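Sequence design from tokenized structure. All designs in this work follow the same two-part layout: the structure record, then the generated sequence. An example of the structure record is given first.
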């Protein structure tokens, strides 16, 4: 038995029932009220937030001094067990990085790891040692507001980002003072909420659950994630917070997870509203027995578990096991040795030049060039450029959802960033009002139109029934395009929007997402050619809201999607294909794919697949080369394509490079008709491709 387990078992032997239950309770305490609760050992963690939707606003009450004051009260309790302070550090603390959905557009796990390492350093300098991130919900319905917080529609891409995020937050040793305990959320299926409405139910088959929704969480567990958060939703008739099969049988017994599970905000108490618990005591018993170790905010554990033990609803052994898991993570995080935070760290570790540099790099790498007619971009030889739209003077509006500690004053306003980066001799005009913009457009040589969603329009419970641009923006685009000047459309958003008409009316389109603190400068560098776009879509871009849910890895059906034919799966009023497919993105150069090679026509263990990628343009550029596979015949129907690997490469003009992938037999596993996990022999198609609807096609036999 190691030192951690020895310490945990020693503490357990000294604790009263009330002290044990206290470790399972996570209240929200701001400032110094409620210190008696801490001195009595009735809280194991504090959530540093001011409401369930705190990510929709800004909160500057968090500080090392505040955490230390609360921690000192907890250390005055009989056993002096330290608190674990948790906060939603979703895409940066004071240094705000692009939203996670944008980060996925970089197809660069190393970048995600670096982002979360910076986030951990900044948050830990304020006393926070636990973050409720990464969010690993596969999201295929863009109406859902929380699509902004995750890594998109694909299990493999999300799994790669999951492992990178955990490494970034926790490092090799989570006890180091500049690291955070990570929390993989929301386990599981939350992104499939019916109708894209937050908190709704979902019906997910067992094969889809295991093949699509489980993999990112399993990747986080394999990466050593310390905690898991149960989801709000009712999954297949059983709320996730009361689902023992998911939280114990699968998570612990199958995957070997030994950290602790925390409920989502009040989701223990909400089991009553779900209709599976008679009252809060019943709800607490259901959640604890399912495998939820810590109750976030609802207070149901603190209020009812002692009586539940006395009346036999739960056992002392179940309480002990939950406490053991929580104390184990506190030990691993080094809280017993270093419970307090040096307030001086905030001076040196927050908003550093290195952090801002990485924020600019991240914003630049994740913006996606969707259209560039006649090579309009980068903007050259235009003396008078009008920059118009509701984001012209944006600062904090570029941050996106869940930026509680971001400060608008830290960001350079977009108009100032443009002026600083535009080539000498360029006249920039700015107009945030449509009538002024229309007047000035007649005298401009080109127009950059900045449109999109305010951060409050995405995130938790910020669902939309219409994926179009906010009211009035499409009309503005139409009026500007009618003037006849070249139009560059820049879209800021927390989700893929249905912008079919807008794209048709603009000559160039950049999808900038919510790019964070350095987003304005990164955008200006791309527009004026100091940087080249490299982002690729981590989600399919819809033509209209009616396509949702939309994703590339759909099943073929008995009458597959076709361009024509009277009895095929289709819409009669629009094309069935997305406006832009998963993995799509342009550059300021061009790339050709040629000479696909397979090491063998038959796979035996592994198969090498390669292609020659050539930069056929006149600028250096980066390409995301993607490997897709289709299992042509299975005991259960298989997707038309599945992403199996990807590589980012940078090529000089005229340079060619052979890109190779090693496909392993285990990459072809899936949940088979008998419920087992494994591969099936047969024929497979394989593509090396620039996105999910193109590429060089080959075939092999397993």
């Amino acid at each position: 038995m190691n030192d951690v387990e020895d310490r945990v078992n020693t503490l357990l032997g000294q604790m009263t029932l009330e002290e044990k239950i206290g470790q399972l309770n996570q209240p929200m305490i701001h400032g110094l009220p409620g210190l008696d609760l801490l001195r009595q050992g009735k809280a194991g963690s504090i959530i540093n937030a001011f409401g369930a939707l705190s990510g929709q606003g800004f909160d500057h009450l968090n500080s090392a001094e505040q955490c230390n004051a609360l921690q000192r009260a907890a250390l005055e309790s009989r056993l002096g067990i330290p608190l674990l302070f948790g906060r939603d550090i979703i895409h940066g603390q004071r240094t705000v990085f692009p939203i996670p959905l944008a980060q996925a557009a970089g197809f660069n796990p190393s970048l995600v790891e670096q982002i979360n390492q910076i986030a951990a350093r900044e948050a830990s300098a304020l006393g926070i040692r636990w973050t409720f991130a990464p969010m690993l919900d596969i999201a295929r319905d863009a109406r859902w507001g929380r699509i902004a917080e995750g890594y998109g529609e694909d299990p493999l891409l999300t799994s790669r980002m999951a492992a990178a995020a955990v490494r970034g937050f926790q490092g090799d040793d989570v006890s180091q003072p500049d690291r955070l305990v990570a929390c993989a959320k929301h386990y599981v299926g939350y992104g499939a909420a019916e109708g894209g409405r937050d908190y709704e139910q979902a019906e997910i088959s067992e094969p889809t659950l295991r093949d699509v929704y489980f993999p990112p969480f399993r990747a986080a567990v394999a990466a050593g994630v310390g905690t898991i958060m149960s989801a709000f939703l009712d999954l297949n008739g059983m709320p996730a917070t009361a689902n023992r099969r998911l939280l114990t049988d699968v998570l612990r017994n199958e995957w070997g997870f030994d950290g602790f599970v925390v409920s989502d905000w009040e989701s223990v108490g909400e089991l009553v509203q779900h209709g599976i618990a008679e009252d809060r005591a019943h709800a607490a018993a259901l959640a604890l027995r399912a495998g939820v170790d810590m109750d976030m905010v609802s207070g149901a554990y603190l209020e009812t578990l002692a009586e539940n033990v006395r009346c036999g609803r739960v056992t002392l052994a179940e309480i002990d096991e939950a406490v053991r898991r929580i104390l184990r993570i506190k030990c691993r995080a080094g809280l017993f040795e270093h419970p307090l935070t040096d307030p001086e760290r905030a001076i040196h570790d927050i908003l550093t030049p290195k952090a801002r540099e990485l924020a600019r790099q991240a914003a630049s790498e994740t913006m996606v060039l969707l259209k560039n007619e006649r090579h309009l971009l980068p903007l050259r030889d235009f003396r008078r450029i009008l920059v118009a739209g509701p984001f012209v003077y944006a600062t904090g509006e570029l941050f996106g959802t869940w930026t509680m500690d971001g400060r608008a004053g830290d960001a350079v306003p977009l108009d100032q960033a443009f002026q600083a980066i535009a080539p000498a001799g360029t006249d920039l005009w700015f107009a945030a009002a449509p009538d002024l913009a229309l007047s000035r457009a007649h005298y401009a040589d080109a127009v950059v139109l900045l449109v999109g969603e305010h951060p409050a329009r995405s995130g938790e419970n910020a669902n939309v029934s219409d994926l179009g641009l906010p009211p009035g923006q499409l009309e503005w685009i139409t009026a500007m395009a009618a003037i006849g000047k070249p139009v560059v459309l820049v879209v800021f958003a927390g989700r893929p929007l249905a912008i079919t008409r807008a794209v048709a009316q603009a000559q160039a389109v950049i999808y900038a997402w919510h790019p964070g603190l350095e987003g304005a400068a990164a955008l200006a560098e791309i527009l004026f050619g100091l940087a080249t776009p490299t982002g690729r879509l981590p989600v399919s871009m819809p033509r209209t809201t009616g396509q949702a849910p939309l994703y590339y890895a759909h099943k073929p059906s008995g009458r597959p999607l076709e361009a024509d034919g009277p009895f095929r799966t289709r819409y009669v009023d629009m094309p069935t294909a997305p406006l832009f497919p998963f993995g799509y993105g342009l550059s300021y150069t061009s790339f050709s794919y040629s000479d696909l090679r397979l090491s063998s026509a038959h796979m035996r263990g592994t198969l090498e697949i390669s292609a020659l990628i050539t930069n056929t343009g006149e600028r250096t550029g980066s390409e995301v080369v993607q490997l897709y596979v289709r299992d042509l015949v299975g005991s259960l129907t298989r997707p038309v394509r599945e992403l199996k690997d990807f590589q980012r490469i940078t090529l000089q003009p005229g340079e060619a490079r052979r890109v190779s992938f090693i496909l392993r037999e285990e990459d072809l596993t899936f949940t088979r008709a008998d419920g087992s996990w494994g591969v099936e022999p047969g024929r497979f198609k394989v593509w090396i491709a620039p996105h999910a609807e193109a590429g060089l096609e080959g075939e092999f036999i397993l």
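The chain is about 30% helix and 20% strand. We note this feature because it recurs in several other targets discussed in the main text.
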